[in-house]
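Customer ticket, subject: "Can you confirm the structure for Contig147, whole genome shotgun sequence?"

Message body: Hello, I'm evaluating your service for our small team and ran a test protein. I'd like someone to confirm that this is what the system normally returns, since I don't have a reference to compare against.
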Amino acid sequence: MSKVTIRRKAISKARHTIYLDHYPPIYNPYTGKLQRTEYLKLYTFDKPSNSAERLHNKETSNLVEFIRASRQIDIQNRRFGFLSDTIRDSSFIEHFRTFTIKKQKSDSDNHAMALRYFIAFAGEDIKLSDLNDFLCEDYKNFLLSGPGISRREKAISKNTAVNYFAKFRSVLKEVFKRGLIDVDLYKIVLPIKPKETHRDRLEIEEFQRLASAPSSSDLMKRAALFSGLTGLRFSDVQALTYSNVKGVPGRYYLQYIQDKTENAEVLPISDQAVQLIGKRGEPRELVFGNLKYSTLKPFFVSWLSRADVYKNITFHSFRHTYATLQLEYGTDIFTLSKLLGHKSLKSTQVYAKIIDRKKTEAAGRIVLDLECLS
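Agent reply: Thanks for trying us out. I re-ran your input and got the following:
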C-alpha cells in the first residue's frame, strides 16, 4: 500500500520546510528516476509571533494537507508519480519527436516518416490525456487507407502502414513505461497484421558475386557482407563496437544488446565475418564507423548493377539471406531462431516457408517416361 506522509525539516530563522515522503518511492518523469521525497517549497514558523504568522501557518498546513491527499489519490487511482496537469496536457507529438531523435542511430528515416504520418493524421496537437484506444484505431485506419503525404503523394503500401504503426505503438509503450499515461495502450491496441510478401534474398552465387564486385564504398560493402554472414540487423551492425567482438580464431562471437528487443545476445560468428571487421580499434570505437541508413539506397543500386544482381535487395535482405542459407545448409529452425535473436519461433518460421526443401524434393518424386512424346 502506497503512503504519502507530511514531513518537516528545520531551516534558518526558526522555521521548518515541509516535504512529502512517498513510500514506496515513485517514478518522477521530470528526472526519470525513482524519488521518495518531494519538497513543496513551503515553510511554517516554529513560534509564530503575530497574527500574520499564525495565519500563514494555518493556511500553509491546509495547503500541504490538500497536496498530500491529492498525491495519495493520484498514486492509488492513476499510478501517476509526480504527474501534474501540465504533464498530462503535454504534447504527445513532442514525446513522439523525442523518441524519434533517440532512434536516429537506427532506421531514422522510418521513424521520421512515422512521425510525419501521425502529424498528418492528427491535424493538430494531441495531448497525452487525449490518447485512447479509439484514437489509436482511427490512426490505424488512416494508415490502412494508404494516404500519400510525400511530394509525389504516392500511396503507402500495407506493409509500410504496418511499419509506421509499429513505431507509433513503440511510443505508446514508452510513455506508459515512463508513467505518463495510466493505460497500457500498447497492449490494448493490436498491431496491423502484415501482408505476406516474397522476401528478396540472395542465392549463394549472387552473394559471392557481390563479394567479388567493386563498390563505391568499402565501408558499406563490408557492413552488408557482415550482415549476410551474421544475420545482424542494420541497427545492430551500426552500433557494433570492437568491445562487442570476442573470442579467438575458430571460436569468435559477438556479445551485444539487440537494438530491437533490448535483449542481451551472444552470437557465434565465423572467422570470415571477423575478417570483414578489419584491424581492431579502440574498445568503444564503432566497427563500421559513420554508417548512415539514408545513404544505402543509391549505394545498393550501383553495387548490385556491377555484380549483375537484378533483385530488390536492401540491407535487411542480407539478414534474410543469412537465414535462408542457414536453412539450406541444414541448420535446424530452433538453432536459427536463437542465432537471429527471435523471441518467438513463429518469427523464424517465415524463413522456413521460403526454403522448404521437402517441397522441392517432393516435386521431383513423380517421374514419367516422356520419350513416347518425342
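A couple of notes from the result: Residues 88-188 form a domain with the DNA polymerase; domain 1 fold (CATH 1.10.150). The longest strand covers residues 15-28. Feel free to reply with more questions.
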